[in-house]
Amino acid sequence: MKLIKSIVRPNMVDNIKEALGKLNIAGMTVTEVRGHGRQKGHTAVYRGREYEVSLLPKMEIEVVVPDSAVDEAIKAIIGAARTGEIGDGRVFVMPVEQGYNIRTGEKDV
Amino acid sequence: MVMSPAKGRDVDQAELRLRLSASLDLARQQLVDATERGEGGRAALARHADCIDAIVRELVDHARVQTRAPLAVFAVGGYGRKSQFLYSDIDLLIVFGGPIRRPEERFVKALLHPLWDLRFQVGHHVREHADFDRPDTTNPEYLLALMDLRPLAGDPDLVARVDSTIQASARTWRPQVLEALIALTDQRHSEFYDTLYQLEPDVKDGPGALRDIWATRLMLRLGGDRRGGVRGASPDRLRDAEEFLMRIRSGLHVDTGRNVNVLSYELQEKAVDRLHYDGPDMRRRVEALMTDYFREARGVTRGLGRVRRVAVPPAPTPIRLIGENLMWVVEGITFADAAKAAAAPAEWLRAFEAAVSRNVGVADDALALIERELQKHAYAPETFHPTADHRARILQFMRPRPGLSARLSEMRDCGLLGAILPELNEISCRVTRDFYHKYTVDEHTLLAVRNAERLLMSPRFGPILREIRSTEVLVLALLYHDVGKAREGDHSIVGAEMAAAMTTRLGLDEGARQTIDFLIRHHLKMSRIAFRRDTEEPEVVRQFASMFSTEEHLKLLLLLTLCDVGAVSPDTLTTWKEELLWRLYVDAYNQMTLGYGDDIIDREQALVAALQANRPNDISEQEMATFFEGLPRRYLILFSQEAIYRHVRLSRDMRPNEAHFFLEKNAEVWELTVVSLDKPFLFSNICGVLAYFGMDILRGHALTSLAGLAVDVFQFADTDGFFERNSQGRKEFDRRLDDVVSGRTDVTSLLKSKEGSVLARRPLVHRTPVVYFDAAHSQRYTVLELVADDAPGLLYRVSRVISDHGIDVDLVLISTEGQKAIDVFHITQGGAKLTEEAEASLKADLEQMLQQPH
Fold first, then answer.
1. Is B337 touching A (CB cutoff 8 A)?
2. Which is deepest, A100, B112, B258, B683, by most CB within 10 Å?
3. Residue B637 above 70 pLDDT?
4. Is residue A104 part of a domain?
């Protein structure tokens, strides 16, 4: 199993959910986050005064998928979240040793 | 067979456990049965407690062999009060007459282990009697637990001694206990956002729930009854509320099999069956249950508030008259003469006005009087605002400031708010079930108003709220934004229609009516776009910005969205969401002020088609099309159809050095429209004439079409009363304006005659002016944004400096927000954007001019 953690634009969550749904990946955890990538934010102007927008609002989506579905899931996430502009986000993949269902106590296979 | 003594004890213990277990099962079953009959209240809980008492006593008897020390066992907390629910903990206080050594420890184990085996959750305090000589006043919860002491077993002498020691000490502890009780109550309430109107309330800990009944009684015992009782916290009323809440809570324990106290949606449906609520469908039955719940909880909350105010009165408040028939007393603002007040419902609002201005509540007797009178009479809403002055007072009252939502809440609870604004009655205690909302619709609405008060303190949003000229528009829109939920259909549209009845009754001007209608219709739009759309996409921002006719509408929608989202639940408006809303606001604001110049009217667009379709007979299709050519699209949003047709007429037969103008007055604001062919210094000259007459320019727009037709509209206040004082004033104004625009009079020399008078007045605020150039936002123009202290003649001086540089003023947005002038100029030089050198030179001269005294 792998944990796929994606940092994406806030408006892309529904697209990603739909794309993962088509792969029968239903469970996900979505968190509001703020951060910056290489560009370290940008400067905005309001009424003639500049202010730094250093931490941009993003969404973090976590899904755990079987090893066999990892490539397809990453492809689906990137396909759904990509605009081609700076700030599209990042995808990270991490190994998961074990997973359990709290209600039933069953171990994920 | 002969058993060893140890084995014999084991058998005894096993038999005892079986017997006690059977006895407990029976007691629990009796409580379950009573609960299922809808009778799981005080009597059933007390019977349950009695059975547990018997079990504890028997276990104390068995454990007694472990020690010879005198001992006493007490029930404390809820068990002490015999409010023993099916899965409640039992709290015990075990006191020994001497020091605690091994035998006493064995006694404690011998008592507690069997209780644990019987699956009780036991909370226990073990003390020596000597401990009560120096009680631990740093542990307020322990002190509070001692307030409900009930002897269960032990040596009668020690029981009596402990009881009398605690009674005697309680007098000493009173201040600490009272302080602790208030602090714990406040903390508990804050966990529920300080509101009882929870869609899924906690019937034990929530505001107005069981723990508040206990707190009320305890406060009465600790000092609240020194005046011989407190009105509204009558024992009967509290008992009725307690019985109702107990029956619900018993049901929750039975339904969940655990110590669960939240009356969730699912459990509400079970409770209506058990408590015999009838109705045509489940929704109505649940609503009936929840209406009863909120009524009882409201009664408890009001009782607690009264007892608290009496137990801990605020700083001494001398009773004094503070206005006609109003007094300020320790409980708050009240009527001096009740009979006189009862006969004058239109004056009731004055009590709430006085309370807000002093940040105190309205006293209970005044609220009770209003409630009573409203029950006796079916007053029409107009009863409360028979004159224009009364209507103006209502609007004035609705301006956000500390204490407003608390007073509106009092008005809601006594019925006055619904009497003045009857549409709000339809959402009273209204339940909407979704994943987000935590409160009833009316409470959500009042919390949104509370958020508006709190926004005043926000470093980011407070200044925006303070810039709004008529903040009552925001509060009225907040009060009505969800009223449509009471009826079928899209609640934004239905709500706007319901609000229209209110704005008509209150006699709001056309602008305010349209603003409220706009805000209610679009109250979900900004959050939807900010949270779900790609706001980095310029087209998304452009479309969003095109919704607004003025920046004030954008600001109001931002503020309304913040208040609304923040009132859904305590956790809904995260800093993350706040940031998204702020960024959308800034981008839309910049689009509206910096980026609108490139967006030219397209003759195919719907608004043009509508204008063509409705055009009066005297305007031809071609005349209209020619007029629109090259004007920014924003022109169509800024002006009404009527105003646009007027502009078309004014543009007829235009010759160089000629201007056609139109002056009219709306309420206290004058509006001047000037249509002419554009030429250097035109804008500056018009501003100069307004400055000459001492007019205070509030807002305005100057637009120039690509064909060189200029439409300048100024809204201004005649602060010196020139028109009022001079019967020929309008004629003189027209003549001067005509002379200046046509070039027959030089405005500079005209203004020289005024030096030392109106132009010498300086504002009180001294803000460092901001002169900012943006060359990127617009393809065609350099945008100059200027923020400075407002001052007479400011716009004239600024535009004069610009024109002196040989720079053309193509588009201008003028706004005045409090003492601050915010002017945005779209400028060109020789038909192109300014060079960097030209920008720098203009900036230096503008800054120098703004720093100079004038």
1. no
2. B683
3. yes
4. no
Asked whether the beta carbons of residue B586 and residue A44 sit closer than 8 angstroms, the reply is: yes
The neighbouring-strand residues paired with A63 are: A4
Q: Which residues pair with B670 in a beta bridge?
A: B665, B716
pLDDT grade for B9, boundaries at 50, 70 and 90: low
Check residue B471 and report its DSSP letter.
T
Q: Which two tokens stand for residue B555?
A: 């600001």
Closest CA to B700 of B792, B579, B825, B588: B825
Beta carbons of B334 and B326 less than 8 angstroms apart: yes
Per-residue model confidence as pLDDT tens digits over B338-397: 999 999 999 999 999 999 999 899 998 999 999 999 999 999 999 999 999 999 999 999
How many angstroms from the chain centroid is the CA of residue B475?
Answer: 9
- For residue B108, the enclosing domain spans 12-182
Same domain, B203 and B248: yes
The band of B224, judged by pLDDT with boundaries at 50, 70 and 90, is very low
Contacts of B609 (CB under 8 A, 6+ apart): none
Q: Give me the number of domains chain A comprises.
A: 1
**In-domain check, residue B5:** no
pLDDT at B853 over 70: no
Same domain, B263 and B330: no
B85 shares a domain with B27: yes
What Rg, from alpha-carbon coordinates, does chain B have? 36
- Average the pLDDT over B595-606 and give the result: 81
Q: Is residue B519 part of a domain?
A: no
Interface of A with B (CB under 8 A): 9-12, 14, 32-34, 44-49, 53, 57, 83, 85, 87
Any idea what the CATH number is for the domain that residue A43 is in? 3.30.70.120
- Contact flag A11-B535 (C-beta cutoff 8 Å): yes
What CATH number corresponds to the domain at position B75?
Answer: 3.30.460.10
Q: How large a percentage of chain B has pLDDT more than 90?
A: 58
Annotate B647-661 with b (16+ C-beta within 10 A) or e (fewer): bbbbbeeeeeeebbb
pLDDT at B233 over 60: no
Of B532, B576, B589, the CB nearest to A32: B576
pLDDT at B273 over 60: yes
What amino acid is encoded at B591 in this protein?
A: Q
Residue whose C-alpha is closest to residue A83's, from B146, B744, B540, B53: B540
